[in-house]
Amino acid sequence: MYGELVLVALIVIGLLGRSSIITTAACILLIVKLTHLERYLPSIERRGIELGLLFLTLAVLVPFASGRVQPKDIVAAFSGWTGWVALAGGAIGAYLNSRGLDTLKMDPQLIVGIVVGSIVGVLLLRGIPVGPLMAAGITAIILKLIQLLVGK
């Protein structure tokens, strides 16, 4: 019963914060629980991030597949300093995502703080909760910096 209450609370929070992503995700999970399909929750947990990243990558690559991005556009993107900064940003983002995945594997209870932090970011900062791996990567970097400063 506790899980259902948390999901209902997340639906309300998502509605109040106008976050369709949180609302939809909580609704889907509530339906899974109420229809007694809990046996699929481990699979959703295990493969959900992969599927989410797959669809996010598909959406980002559509301009290439549709022909809206031409070879000249790619060359033009790297002819200025902003393209090189974007390249560095992509590389750093991928690195942080890998650190985030490692951190969540070693310390899975951090997901609670990341989820709550994502909800706070959506509600108060008008953010978009698409980056739990990035949030975990940033968490890993902050934890490492604190360990270096404190000496542990």
UniProtKB/TrEMBL annotation:
Coiled coil: none annotated. Keywords: Cell membrane, Membrane, Transmembrane, Transmembrane helix. The chain crosses the membrane at residues 6-31, 51-69, 75-96, 108-125, 131-150. It is found in: Cell membrane. Its main location: membrane. It is a multi-pass membrane protein. The keyword Hydrolase does not apply. Belongs to the UPF0756 family. HAMAP family: UPF0756 (MF_01874). This is UPF0756 membrane protein QJS35_11845. It comes from Cohnella silvisoli.
